Amino acid sequence: MVRTVHTAVQLQAPLVCGTLVKSLFDISLQFIADNIGHVDSLAGFPEQMAVKLFSAAEERHRFIDPHTAHRALHTVFCEACGELVLKSMCLRNRYLLISERMDEIRMFQSLESLDLNGCRLGNNHDIFKYITSEALSRYGQQIILKGIGANCLSDAGLQRLTAPVRLMKKGLENLQISLVNLSLKGFFRNKINLIRSETPLKVFTHSDCKTEGWAEQMEGKSLFERH
């Protein structure tokens, strides 16, 4: 639901013959993008319109403005559009970015795939709490944690990562982990019930990992620069 905002829009005649005047649709889209913090919800909004509004809001830096960022990105778009905003995220070798942007990362609660290889996070980093949070599990999706090698994870770290599901039956019901250090194979043999795949697994390569979703266009302005 979009709040009713009364405003006056004055259209001026073109100064030069042949100059195109903005359509009423473009004017309305830009006005809503400028005032995205006053939008209650986009639930039921057509996808084609929502992606145009997302692009317009991004162009106006509404996702990095501290006064509008959380409401615009999380409340307005992520809650209504889910995985369309961000389905997968590649943060390979981006330790500083993860530490600086953890609050923004938490906003994406429909994430299905995450690559954290080479980030040197250690056992207690907040991003692992995010991965196993009930906020994610309420959507009931499966998250694939790709590439957690070179993160200084010990057996204790893996136990902590999987504890919500193993011990308390909370957090994500389905958690897939690939590219784990071979030194942790004892943990998986003793703590995790492994199920043999019915079909051969495809060889994993980092080229398969990428940031995917509308938020990918936030290149160079916030989280999601291309690699």
Descriptive report:
The protein is mainly α and 227 residues long. It is built from 9 helices and 4 strands.
Short account of what is shown:
The protein has helices at 24-34, 47-59, 69-81, 95-100, 102-105, 126-131, 134-137, 155-166, 185-191; strands at 88-90, 113-115, 143-146, 175-177. It is mainly alpha-helical and 227 residues long.
SSE layout:
Blueprint: H1 24-34, H2 47-59, H3 69-81, E1 88-90, H4 95-100, H5 102-105, E2 113-115, H6 126-131, H7 134-137, E3 143-146, H8 155-166, E4 175-177, H9 185-191
Helix pairs in contact: 1-2
Helix content estimate: 25-40%
Number of domains: 2
DSSP E strands, number: 4
Compute the number of helices: 9
Main beta sheet: 4 strands, parallel
- Return residue spans where pLDDT drops below 50 for at least 5 consecutive residues: 4-16
- The percent range for strand residues is 5-15%
